[in-house]
Write a structure and sequence with these properties.
single chain, about 110 residues, alpha+beta, five-stranded antiparallel beta sheet, 5 strands, elongated
């Protein structure tokens, strides 16, 4: 019984071992990265107000987020979600932020 099993396994393994790997072509080089728009880089302004440290984040001069770090405590964030200038407080920065791009403004 063992001999039959060994012969059967050898008969199955022989064609598999005889196969040649396919000839692979080299991968072409990726295209160069596009240059980023410097106006889309966030501008960070750090201001000391009393004992609090305030970091203001702007894109194209528009304020979209403020981080307030008190001397004793956890920092909190004021975020303008809709772009209308009304800030809402968040105690921790969200781990998931849904992209909200402005398609057209006038």
């Amino acid at each position: 019984m063992r001999r039959k099993l060994i012969v059967l396994l050898m008969a199955i393994a022989t064609p598999v071992a005889a196969q040649q790997p396919p000839k692979l072509e080299p991968i072409p080089e990726p295209p160069p990265m596009p240059a980023g728009d410097p106006s889309m880089d966030p501008e960070v302004t750090i201001v000391k107000r009393g004992q609090d440290t305030v970091q203001e984040y702007r894109i194209r001069g528009k304020l979209y987020m403020i981080k307030v770090t008190p001397p004793h405590g956890v920092p909190y964030y004021l975020i303008d979600h809709e772009g209308n200038g009304i800030m809402s407080r968040q105690d921790v920065l969200p781990s998931l932020s849904v992209p909200m791009w402005v398609i057209k403004s006038w």
